[in-house]
Amino acid sequence: MRVVITGAAGFIGSHLSETLLDRGHSVIGIDNLLTGDRENVAHLRDRDFQLIIHDVTRYIDVAGPVDLVLHWASPASPIDYLELPIPTLKVGALGTHNALGLAKAKGARFVLASTSEVYGDPLEHPQKETYWGNVNPIGPRGVYDEAKRFAEAITVAYHRHHGLDAKIIRIFNTYGPRMRIHDGRAVPTFIGQALRGEDVTIFGDGSQTRSFCYVTDLVEGILRLADSNTNDPVNVGNPHEMSIAEIAQTIIRMTGSSSQLVFKPLPTDDPKVRRPDITRAREILGWEPKVPLEEGLTTTIAYFRTKI
Ligand code: NAD
User: Fold this and answer.
1) Whose Cα sits closest to atom 28 in ligand 1?
2) Which residue in 14, 18, 72, 122 could disulfide with 7, CB within 3.0 to 4.6 Å?
């Protein structure tokens, strides 16, 4: 296959590119390096891979045939989208429109990287795909959540109206090498603080929960969805739910750090619980996560040691 990946120089996009190349496909990455880094794909330089530096909120054209478009471009960490509210809304809206237009013009399949944030601060737990969510459109996080909700709506419209074979994956918290240490997400932040021997900062009392999926498990789920016949949204994430304090303590133990936990006020609209119901992924894709937390953290901690 010839695959176009928007956001290819980002954390997940770079792993997706690598796995597709390993499976014998050709990859064209499109990225404007807003939150990504060329270094993430530097090791793919001599393979069947090219990186086009381009902002996907502007018209996208790629020469030659395309079989699959994976639309991954978007700031994804709270620090990024709070600093970049308008680019986040634009890439979710205009960027998704352009990526869908490319798939339509080429007769390609399309997969949208959506997010568990479409469920907002959920009133249903764990979250099933049938849940419509509890999102504050005008809260600070609304710029990301509503951009992704719009992206889902236009993706479904292209499927229903134009017959595009479009799919939606709702990704839950994912971690692994090539995240940025200062991107504000829990795992890299805690690892960075623990490795530097600094206090580990917990927002709130640490009882809020998250479910962390290792990036190789996520990539397998994405590629199974791309190959599937479904056009319904599918949750992909690890249902193993932990409190934020528990994950911080695990990281402190695994890094052998003497860091202490410190507690700061919870940001506005921060979800209190988050756990995917992955029944649909199990039934339709035969997918479930395989990498235990400690194994994924070992690789991730080793990566961040090289960065500090
Ligand atoms: P990331 O910031 O590492 O990657 C995003 C990439 O998109 C970056 O390389 C960035 O430069 C690029 N980009 C942003 N705006 C662009 C534009 N206008 N034109 C071209 N490129 C642009 O983030 P990530 O964690 O790899 O997330 C990738 C995707 O997965 C996002 O769509 C995100 O919403 C989704 N997602 C991620 C998670 C997670 O836990 N990492 C969870 C849910 C959803």
Assistant:
1) 72
2) 72
Q: What is the tens place of the pLDDT at every residue in 232-282? A: 999 999 999 999 999 999 999 999 999 999 999 988 878 888 899 999 999
Q: How far is residue 301's CA from residue 262's CA, in Å, rounded to a whole number?
A: 21
Known catalytic residue at 119: no
| Closest C-alpha to ligand 1, atom 19 | 55
Long-range contact set of residues 58-61: C-beta below 8 Å, sequence gap at least 24 = 58/98, 59/98, 59/101, 60/6, 60/30, 60/98, 60/99, 60/101, 60/102, 61/102
Q: Which atom of ligand 1 is nearest to the CA of 178?
A: 3
Cα 36 to ligand 1 centre (Å): 8
pLDDT digits (tens, 9 = 90+) for 17-59: 999 999 999 999 999 999 999 999 999 999 999 999 999 999 9
Mutation choice for ligand 1 from 15, 35, 89, 218, CB with most ligand atoms inside 8 A: 35
Question: Could you tell me if the CB of 10 is within 6 A of ligand 1?
Answer: yes
State the closest ligand 1 atom to the C-alpha of 73, by its place in the atom list counted from 1. Answer: 7
Integer CA distances (angstroms), 125 to 32, 175, 200, 268, in order: 36, 22, 28, 20
Which one is catalytic: 144, 158, 175, 214?
144
Domains, the chain, ranges and CATH? Answer: 2-178+213-239+275-291 (3.40.50.720)
pLDDT digits (tens, 9 = 90+) for 102-155: 999 999 999 999 999 999 999 999 999 999 999 999 999 999 999 999 999 999
